[in-house]
Amino acid sequence: MAIVLCNEGTCIPPKCPIVDVQADKVIIGEKNNVCTLTRKQFDILKEKIKRGEI
């Protein structure tokens, strides 16, 4: 599942950041500027966001 993080008119589509959730990893970022997390790392990030730590 890939989610594009742009609102209409806020950026150029090829440069929109994405969150690409795969079975074993999650890729976050733009074309040549990405961060790859394991699913476990992503789950930790998600929980920190939900708790307001980030």
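(ticket continues) Second input and output from the same batch:
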Amino acid sequence: MAVYEGLASPETLQDGESPIIAVSEDKSSISAITVIDDIRGNPAYAVRVDMDREAYGIGLESMVFSLFVVALVGIIASVLLIAIVNKRFIFRLESLKSQVERIGREQDFSGEVTLEGDDELTSLSSSFNRMLRALEEHIVEQRRAESRARTATEKLQLLSGITRHDLLNQMTVIQGNTDLLLNTAKDPAVLVHLEKIQKAAENIDSLITFTRDCEKMGISSPEWQNVEALVKAVFEKIQPSDIGVEVSVGDLEILADPLLERVFFNLVDNTLRHGQGATRISVSSHKRDDHMILVFEDDGCGVEADMKARLFEKGAGKNTGLGLFLSKEIVRITGITISETGSPGQGARFEIDIPPGSYRFFEKK
């Protein structure tokens, strides 16, 4: 027996409320009730009609079937679309990517990318191949230019090396004879001139050494160098008898030009030449933000106030004025800076500012 929702009994029917239509709970049938009045206008009969909903069932099945067909067609169309897109674009794009990565990895700019088809991706591959040809031509020309420059540099180095060697031989003769005359001459006026000649010879010797160092600067790639080992090597070469050294930098290493030892030599030599009263040189390091500060300081007379601003300029100083200038240029190759921050009368203090990436602490295994 079907149960109907909202179906009123004849006793509860009122005028204006008929007919009443209700649907069974299982949606399979529909019923309608109406009231018939007697000749006096009073409700006399309640008529009920029940009917199966066959058309509704058929329509519902048709709708479900239609939705299934639409979903199936959509899935098939999506699969086909994905396959087409993958074949025409994704697969070819992956092929283009792998070929470009191979060329970049092998640095083989003489190769080319191949892509079938006649669309935007094919046009892109053709443009990339043209770029490769242009890049290869540029690299070939650059290598030729580098080869020519290297050959010219080698010739200049050979010529300057021979010239420098001959100049040093002649300077040795001049200095030897000057020393001999200084030991034998008696006339004070002559001795004054001989001392000037001797000083000029020493300056010329320093200039020749300076040209040699400048020639080597930047030729070799920067390399990691242990600070403590370099400082000790400098003191072993100079061997100052009246000045001690204190090094407290741990296993600090600096990425710098191979001429970094020359920088340390110039700083120590600066103390020996100009640091009157100096008895020690200390080398230490500390962090400042993310930079490493390497400090060379002595307990001598310090740098005069009027000299600080031009201390690292070419020609400044009491001798040739080339040592500190050269030091500044050597460290600048790897982005390192050097400055003098001491106080006059309290010793010289040189701070070498090393940026991140140019310092590390060697890990002993």
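Agent notes: DSSP finds seven helices and eleven strands in the chain. Residues 114 and 331 are 48 Å apart (CA to CA). Closing as not reproducible unless the customer responds.
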